[in-house]
């Protein structure tokens, strides 16, 4: 009995947290994803790079079912995302997503932003949720902003608060969609530091970014997307010694 | 018959003005409830519900309130339903105001930036939770100035209830004029009372518009 349980948990830890298999997706006649496959293991940081329009953001959004795929298979934390009968809310409790434009709720304080989902989705008590809010805000260095409104914070602070809001749901995987693209270099730095700390804590992450230096430092795996396909993939080292001319050209212009 | 304008006449006008206010409030309340339901139907995930509510709005917006009043007051009795002037006027206003407020509120809900929906979805909130806790609080802020502005339209439109014999401000003016025959004087007083009712409300609406400016701006960048 004990053995089978152990075997089961072993199998669970070995199966990837996120897996895309031969995913196809078109917007009208435009083919955005053309047979994309990749996997993300527990504790791994996968960085999606590529030109605008290469499909990297769409691939990321498909993981949280913000886009429906035309064919292929996506499995995230044992949720079959490509299944029409998917329990969407169960999936989204396991997946945290942070957007380029922060998307904090402007009519709520930072604390209310963070406690909203744990209280109304998970049924956590107000007191517990507030405790958790304090903890996640400390994690992103904003414990003093608890009672402020989003508009009173800088862009970098808002983005960190948005990360904290996602963390409060205790997701098994975090998705970051160009989270620093709206920020100036100084504010970018403070957000990236938070993400680095999360990676060091062992959080599984998939991120789309244009920060090549950051990608090199944090990625366990890099996926370079080009024209809707995974054009080149490998460890962070491929950013310094790319195998394909397209990636060479991309990092050449990116650095 | 005849005579000059006296205190009794003014009392009578005051009474009519009270009914104008009362009918406006009924229209706002009834139309508000109807409008809220219509706004929700207009953005429903169900296509049939969306089409039906859109059809309702198109139909009512393309029909004069006067005709709706006639239909409810004179049309319904031919179907065996007799209604009092108050009921007919209230029902007509509810039908009419509901269509317009429904559209104003649908627009307000839809002008809450799309990413706000996505952020709420990403946090696993259910559709009704997203609506109640994230979208509506922001939509209400956007909807307040045009809604208050529309109140002015409601007040003025209650004058049409006079055609079904309901004695509100315009009708009470008519009645007094029938005995005094001083149309210029009496209708000037009537116009003055309508203005006194409407002007403060349009001022409030304009104040709200300028004040909600920065709030909308911050919604845009959020």
From TrEMBL, chain A:
Keywords: Amino-acid transport, ATP-binding, Cell membrane, Membrane, Nucleotide-binding, Transport. Its main location: membrane. It is a peripheral membrane protein. The keyword Iron-sulfur does not apply. It is found in: Cell membrane. InterPro entries: AAA+_ATPase (IPR003593), ABC_ATPase_HisP-typ (IPR030679), ABC_transporter-like_ATP-bd (IPR003439), ABC_transporter-like_CS (IPR017871), MetN_ABC_transporter-like (IPR050086), P-loop_NTPase (IPR027417). SMART domains: AAA. PROSITE patterns: ABC_TRANSPORTER_1, ABC_TRANSPORTER_2. The keyword Membrane applies. One of its GO terms (cellular component) is plasma membrane. Residues 18-252 form the ABC transporter domain. One of its GO terms (molecular function) is ATP binding. CDD domains: ABC_HisP_GlnQ. Belongs to the ABC transporter superfamily. PANTHER family: AMINO ACID IMPORT ATP-BINDING PROTEIN, GLUTAMATE_ASPARTATE IMPORT ATP-BINDING PROTEIN GLTL. This is Phosphate ABC transporter ATP-binding protein.
TrEMBL record, chain B:
Pfam families: BPD_transp_1. PROSITE patterns: ABC_TM1. The chain crosses the membrane at residues 12-41, 53-76, 184-202. Signal peptide: none annotated. Keywords: Cell membrane, Membrane, Transmembrane, Transmembrane helix, Transport. GO terms for biological process: amino acid transport. It is found in: Cell inner membrane; Cell membrane. It is a multi-pass membrane protein. GO terms for cellular component: ATP-binding cassette (ABC) transporter complex. InterPro entries: AA_ABC_transptr_permease_3TM, ArtM/GltK/GlnP/TcyL/YhdX-like, MetI-like, MetI-like_sf. Belongs to the binding-protein-dependent transport system permease family. HisMQ subfamily. This is Amino acid ABC transporter permease.
């Amino acid at each position: 009995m004990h053995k089978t349980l152990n075997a089961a948990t072993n199998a669970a830890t070995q199966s990837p947290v996120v897996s895309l298999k031969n995913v196809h997706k078109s917007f009208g006649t435009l083919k955005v994803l053309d047979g994309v496959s990749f996997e993300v293991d527990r504790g791994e940081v996968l960085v999606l790079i590529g030109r605008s329009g290469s499909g990297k953001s769409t691939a990321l959004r498909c993981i949280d079912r913000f886009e429906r795929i035309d064919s292929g298979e996506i499995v995230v934390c044992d949720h079959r995302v490509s299944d029409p009968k998917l329990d969407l809310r169960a999936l989204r409790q396991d997946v945290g997503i942070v957007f380029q434009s922060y998307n904090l709720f402007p009519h709520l304080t930072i604390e209310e932003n963070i406690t909203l989902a744990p209280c109304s989705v998970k049924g956590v008590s107000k007191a517990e949720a507030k405790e958790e809010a304090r903890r996640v805000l400390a994690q992103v260095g904003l414990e003093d902003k608890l009672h402020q409104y989003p508009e009173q914070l800088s862009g970098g602070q808002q983005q960190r608060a948005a990360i904290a809001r996602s963390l409060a749901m205790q997701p098994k995987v975090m998705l970051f969609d160009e989270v620093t693209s709206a920020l100036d270099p100084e504010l970018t730095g403070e957000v990236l530091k938070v993400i680095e700390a999360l990676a060091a804590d062992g959080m599984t992450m998939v991120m789309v970014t244009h920060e090549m230096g950051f990608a090199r430092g944090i990625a366990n795996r890099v996926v370079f997307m080009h024209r809707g396909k995974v054009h080149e993939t490998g460890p962070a080292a491929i950013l310094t010694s790319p195998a394909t001319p397209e990636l060479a050209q991309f990092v050449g212009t990116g650095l | 018959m005849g005579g000059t304008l006296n205190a009794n006449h003014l009392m009578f006008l005051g009474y009519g003005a009270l009914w104008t206010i009362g009918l406006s409030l009924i229209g706002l309340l009834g139309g508000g409830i109807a409008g809220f339901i219509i706004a929700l139907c207009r953005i429903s995930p169900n296509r049939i519900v969306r089409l039906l509510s859109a059809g309702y709005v198109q139909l009512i917006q393309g029909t004069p309130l006067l005709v709706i009043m006639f239909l409810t007051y004179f049309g319904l009795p031919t179907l065996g339903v007799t209604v009092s002037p108050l009921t007919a006027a209230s029902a007509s206003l509810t039908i009419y105001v509901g269509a317009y407020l429904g559209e104003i509120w649908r627009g307000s809900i839809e002008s809450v930036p799309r990413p706000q929906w996505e952020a709420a979805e990403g946090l696993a909130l259910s559709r009704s939770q997203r609506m109640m806790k994230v979208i509506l609080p922001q939509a209400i802020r956007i909807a307040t100035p045009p809604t208050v502005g529309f109140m002015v339209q409601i007040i003025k439109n209650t004058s049409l209830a006079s055609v079904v014999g309901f004695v509100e401000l315009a009708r009470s003016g008519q009645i007094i004029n029938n005995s005094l025959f001083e149309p210029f004087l009496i209708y000037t007083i009537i116009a003055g009372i309508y203005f006194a009712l409407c002007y403060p409300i349009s001022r409030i609406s304009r104040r709200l518009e300028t004040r909600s400016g920065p709030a909308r701006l911050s919604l845009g960048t959020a």
